[in-house]
């Protein structure tokens, strides 16, 4: 692609211009990445940039390092440096993945990995506050947006709350299906968010390297006082940034708040 050749980059370093050489080069590369390249496209190698601009390799590296820190570029060790893809703000809302992606104007899709019934044992039984070996529905999916893998989600539902759920094909939107088939609407929930490293299996599914940072979100969602959905989601950290609304106790958000965020 033309954007990945050093000779396609417009601009040159000026000895009379203000600022350091790596600062000038940073500005040139930033303009090139944002105006010429597409997200995920490789930029020229450090060697090519060094030759094209006639500067030391350390100067090129400083400029690239600064752009990586700014989130303009992303470096994959052993592969190269690429124009960073924009991150989606991961809003902590009690909505389904399908609803959230549609709100963003993206096309959601899912690849079903597991849709079956298993006994809740050990940690799973404790998280769901169930007796050992209580049957639960397991629904594991690879979720995509505009064809790109975004997360691996695994939901668990008490089987006695959703009789016959496995008799039909796996739903495209879990929360919508629970509402339509059983009149169950999630009312409140609790999320626990932490960092995780991609295992070999998750890395292959998400299209990332083993050990790549992921966002792990563990959710307990309730209808009334009863837990209906326990889930563990692994999000690609390079495609999401976490957005959490804050409000001082005893105050009300301004009337334009929801409309502004949506």
- N-end to C-end Cα span: 36 Å
In what order do the strands lie side by side in the largest sheet?
A: 4-5-6-9-8-7
Radius of gyration: 23 Å
Range of strand content:
25-35%
Q: Low-confidence spans: pLDDT under 50, at least 5 residues?
A: 255-262
Query: What value does the average pLDDT take?
Result: 83
Main sheet, how many strands, which sense, barrel?
6 strands, antiparallel
Helix percentage range: 25-40%
- Beta strands, count: 10
List the total number of helices. Answer: 8
Global geometry: elongated
How do the helices and strands follow one another from N- to C-terminus?
A: HHHEEEHEHEEHEHEEEH
Structural category is alpha+beta
What oligomeric state do the depicted chains represent?
A: single chain
Provide structural commentary.
The protein is α+β, with helices and mostly antiparallel strands and 262 residues long. It is built from eight helices and ten strands. The protein has a six-stranded antiparallel β-sheet with strand order 4-5-6-9-8-7. The protein has a two-stranded antiparallel ribbon with strand order 1-2. β5 (134-145) and β6 form a beta hairpin. α1 (21-35) packs across α3 (57-69) and α2 packs across α3.
Summary?
This protein is of the alpha+beta class.
Provide the descriptors you would attach to this structure in a database record:
single chain, 262 residues, alpha+beta, two-stranded antiparallel ribbon, elongated
